[in-house]
Amino acid sequence: MSRRILIVDDEQGIRAALGQLLEFEGYEVRTAANAVDGLAEYARFKPHLVFMDVKMAGIDGLEALQKLRAQDQQAVVVMISGHATIQTAVEATQHGAYDILEKPLDTDRILVTLRNALAHLDLHEENARLRDTVRSRFAIVGTSFAIRAVTEKIELVAKTPARVLITGENGTGKELVAQAIHANSPRAKSPFVEVNCAAIPSELIESELFGHMKGSFTGAVQDRSGKFEQANGGTLFLDEIGDMSLAAQAKVLRVLQDGVVTRIGGAKTVQVDVRVLAATNKDVEAEIAAGRFREDLFYRLNVVPIHVPPLRERREDIPLLVGHFIDQLTGPAGLAPRAVGDDAVARLSQLEWPGNVRELRNTIERLLILSSGPRIRADDVDRLVGRRPDSGDGGLGSLLDVPTFEEFKHAAERAYLVAKLRAYDWNVSETARGLDMPRSNLYKKIERYGLSREGGTSAPPAPGGADDDEGDDA
């Protein structure tokens, strides 16, 4: 599609000559003989660029430029003048003109200016497209009561400087909540810096957060700013803060109290203005009781708590999420578009999602790649995802059908254990640690209930006894 150019000039000769040149170059051109007609034509024609004369009868070009920029702040306007002065150029630039050209107009100068202005416009449009893509990537999708409670809390807290502690299982979208708080805050145009505390070795976390000076430790070959300094004026997101060492927690607490950081090996303090958001999948109060998390830091971070619900608690959002991920993963730069049958959506809505929204997204991507035919159907879900029926592992309705209280207790215990084993990918050692249960006890319960990973793999026998700490998968 050709670019649209509007020429506003009270000289017929200028309009005709400039219009002929631009049409020869392949642009769609319209003209106006005065500013009033030019403003009206702009609203109708919606040009990509405007050439506007400075001196015109009635409303002059500079006044028209102000009106045009008030009408559309993104308008790209090149002023043209027969007697341009430095003062005129400065005034035009102050009012938002892209450039100013002197009469008589030089063909090469016109084309160079036009090319540069349209390249600037292309860059702006690409940035807008990328921002839309990022917003889509970090969209919080859902209309369930549980997710609406989260978004309402985000709207309330985003405009304040309050610290927020975001809790929830892995894959529920805690990062999306942090992104949404930052994007809707007064700091939205400032940096959003993320630190995954679980992914950084404990001996490096302090350097990552606070920076270091050259020579302060082996490998410190130059001065380096930390994440607190990098986020100055913006937001710092401490993801999985429950995995941070106690030593690092103490230093974070000091920064929150005093608003200053000191690089490792340095003596000079640096003032920082940072809003801290934190997230964890752990039970922080249990971590405090076990001595693994500082209680004073918890109270500093937990000004406003936001809990992100697991997908099983908002199943009504699954159809919306399926559509969102289809749109996100397909298109010109992605996978081939594919319709999803109602039967497939119903089947996906029935499944357990221990990996929550992240697992659902990966599943949709797998279905788009591996399913055959123009439409994804329920049998594709069964074949490529596997049925995970709700038989004794989860639904409250099935538990309520149990005839006696004793059977209900056993069924509930079995359902709980299956859910926790799935959450830890059937790693018995990790599940036992998460449940604060001796591993030998967990093996006994697995054997008692005949539990096995979906697909028929039985749990291994208990190795050695309760004191064996090696990780084994069920």
Class based on secondary structure composition and strand pairing: alpha/beta
Number of continuous helical runs: 20
Taken as a percent bin, the fraction of beta residues is: 5-15%
Flag low-confidence runs.
389-395, 454-474
Question: Architecture of the largest domain in CATH?
Answer: 3-Layer(aba) Sandwich
- Give the quaternary arrangement of the chains: single chain
Number of domains: 4
CATH class of the largest domain: Alpha Beta
CATH topology of the largest domain: Rossmann fold
Question: In which order are the strands of the major sheet placed?
Answer: 2-1-3-4-5
**Shape field:** extended
**What average pLDDT do the residues reach?**
85
Q: How can the largest sheet be summarized?
A: 5 strands, parallel
The percent range for helix content is 40-55%
User: What is the radius of gyration computed over CA atoms, rounded to a whole number of angstroms?
Assistant: 31 Å
Classified in CATH, the superfamily of the largest domain is P-loop containing nucleotide triphosphate hydrolases
* Distance, first to last CA: 60 Å
